Amino acid sequence: xxxxxxxxxxxxxxxxxxxxxxxxxxxxxxxxxxxxxxxxxxxxxxxxxxxxxxxxxxxxxxxxxxxxxxxxxxxxxxxxxxxxxxxxxxxxxxxxxx
Length: 98
What we know:
- 76% of the residues lie in helices and 0% in strands.
- 19% of the residues are buried.
- Helix 1 crosses helix 4 and helix 3 packs antiparallel against helix 4.
- The termini are far apart.
- The chain is mostly helical.
């Protein structure tokens, strides 16, 4: 099976940020409950906004892999969900970032 397909990039681009968000949220909750980090002094949406942005950035990992392996169709497929997630992020947090 050939891995350089747009559908592979689409699937990775949709799944990786969702899984990354869940993992980052759990890590943040663990650190917060142990007292290592705190939300004091930050806006109400800081935690959710930052974790969501970092989760979208998880798409850079397969993007870099596809680029090294010259898998350009996979890169193309990865761009679509990334742009979708960034657009959703901007729309959802538009009031808190302006």
